[in-house]
Amino acid sequence: MFGFAAVALLVAGVLSYAASSHPDGLDATTQRGCTVVEVGGAEELRGECIARNARDHALAHSPLADYTVDGDDRLTGIAGVLGVAAAFAALFAVVRVIRAGNSRRATSISPGSSLPEPEST
Length: 121
Fold this sequence. Notes:
This protein is mainly alpha-helical.
């Protein structure tokens, strides 16, 4: 498991710099029928497409939004490493809770006692 985590951190930290800045398949599909125009330093969609109805989510301006750290593209690798670390922290927390539940269930059965028989229908 630790080997997998090390590889994931390496990939996130190094290969994230090779990621494309062009829209992925979902973005490209939602932008069909529109053109991207720069207006006042910001991009605006013109035409008829699904993406014109899109709105920023609540965390759009958070420190790790858009796979960067505070909008600095030079820190993409660090954002990737932080994302992988957060995912593994969540994984370990879930596994720990599951193991704690299993161990409590196992200790509630006293040694020498048998498990209850399942009900037949």
